[in-house]
Amino acid sequence: MAIKSTADKVATIVQGYTLEGPTIELGAAIVDGELHKDAPVRLPLAMMNRHGLVAGATGTGKTVTLHMMAEQLSTAGVPVFLADIKGDLSGLATAATGSDKLLARTESIGQPWSGKTFPVEFLALGGDGQGIPVRATVTSFGPILLSRVMDLNETQESSLQLVFHFADKNNLELIDLKDLRAVIQFLTSAEGKDELEELGGLSKATAGVILRELITLEAQGMEKFFGEPEFDTAELLRTAPDGRGVVSCLELPTLQTKPMLFSTFLMWLLADLFEDLPEAGDLDKPKLVFFLDEAHLLFNGASKAFLDAITTTVRLIRSKGVGIFFVTQTPKDVPADVLGQLANRVQHALRAYTPEDAKALKATVSTFPTSDYDLAETLTTAGIGEAVITVLNEKGAPTPVALTRLRAPESVMGPSTDALISSTVAGSALLPKYGTAVDNISAYEKITAEGGDYTGAAPTGPAAGAAHPGGSRGRGQSGAGDGGAAPGAALDPTAIDAEARRIEEEILGRPSSRPAERPKQPEYRDAPERQAPRQAQPTGGGGIGGGIGDDLAGALGGGLKSMARSLGTQLGRELLRGVFGTSSKRRRR
Ligand SMILES: Nc1ncnc2c1ncn2[C@@H]1O[C@H](COP(=O)(O)OP(=O)(O)OP(=O)(O)O)[C@@H](O)[C@H]1O
Ligand SMILES: [Mg+2]
């Protein structure tokens, strides 16, 4: 093949990125070391629901890329959700002032630039941060996601599905963690013996382990994430009065201490949206674009059921008009089944220091279409704020690979001031709706209420008190609130462990076989680098029905599988909970 001239390479790019319809302008191509501002690189808005990947080594510009894309989406009237891991995306609410250096950059790529603010809604999980509190009810969260937060194995996960099934059938609303604990305690009590037997497949021993993990969760202060008012994910689809898309910015300031909880919550938001949105067919522009920064946290140590659910969601949500962009360091952080569905690629520079890096580089190169670039060379030498790009054109074919100098954001690359964030939150229409947690009658109250249907099942002992810290509604029997350990980070993990073991032993009627001390501090047990994947290879799901069937079969271990088959129709209710076992608030109404 004859060597192509630079002019021919530029012509290929110009032609490949001459697109019909509205676009997100990404930047200008660099060919043979020269920047060509007359060769713009862009992404059709109509193709953003074909999902994407923004990858690259640390500090190469991934977060700025998603910031810049979010601005243009908002301007085009598309709502955006993003997880603000490092707090540097709150700057979207503050107009940038262009330095000479910045303006030289924007001029060089042909970007008309002026400082702007964008309509930002600040959210905070469980009120952990300044934003509007985002909570989910336990029932909505569902057993698969909760199993992941609790680090349950697949047998325990299937047992937890049975607990949810029992609660669903018996009108025991699982709103917060103490509701779930009360139901498990009931099932393992003398009074719940018949129900437990009828349920089948749930052993006392497994229930004891789940209970133990639940208590650990409460003791880690996780209660505030679960409860009412539950966040309505339809809030993420709003536009501002001027027609621009609202950018919902979920602060995750303490992500590193609870990566599993936070990444699982992001999946809950997505799963909840997925369940509620109608099929939309091909739209001119997406209804929402969802950016998942630090996406590797989603996949680390994921169970097969969880991975299948992500794969299924990613595959099916695009026809509902939602685009998902994963942001992570290398494409190998993303399972192949998911990666294969990410059509729009923005690959920032990769390092090649170690043999491991070299392998990742090679793998990354092989995922790109053939091109006029030496990609291994290009990817190791690309500058900060530059990336190798290929996207889908409006006909659904990949555009030519182009090394691109990316546009700069028009709002601040970095945090907004605390004062601005607080005043934005104080003025938000969502604050009256979600600002204050409420505790309505639910399973815990029903089970512990005297004369209720479940009188025998009052949680007893200090653990009951642990989940009822204020004692404000201390209607529980026999010792609820009687000097039990209060939840919170200040608790000694050894004491929590001892208490959890005591309860487990009480249920089992024999000494716990668990090691006396947790091998790791609970706060860090989810740290990605320490977590060995449970399932080496993700597998593809089927359609919704097939996928869930597979998920469940996969999730249920050993003899439980045949039990699940025979329970077929009974379990049908759980299956309808959704791909992730979640249950939509609107469908529960
Ligand atoms: N498109 C751009 N225009 C102007 N400056 C940029 C651009 N992209 C990146 N930069 C500069 O590079 C810095 C680092 O970028 P960024 O924070 O996006 O890196 P990152 O890949 O997200 O890193 P990490 O993996 O550590 O989160 C920015 O603070 C900014 O100064
Ligand atoms: Mg970043």
Average pLDDT for all residues: 81
DSSP summary, beta strand count: 12
CATH architecture of the largest domain: 3-Layer(aba) Sandwich
Report the CATH C-level class of the largest domain: Alpha Beta
Distance between the termini: 65 Å
State the domain count: 2
Ions, cofactors, ligands: which are bound? adenosine-5'-triphosphate, magnesium ion
Question: Within the CATH hierarchy, at the fold level, what is the topology of the largest domain?
Answer: Rossmann fold
Overall morphology:
elongated
Q: Helix share of residues?
A: 25-40%
Strand numbers in spatial order across the main sheet = 2-1-12-11-10-3-9-8-4-7-5-6
Protein name: DUF853 family protein
Domain Helicase HerA-like C-terminal: 36-450
Biased composition (Low complexity): 458-470
Region (Disordered): 458-491, 506-589
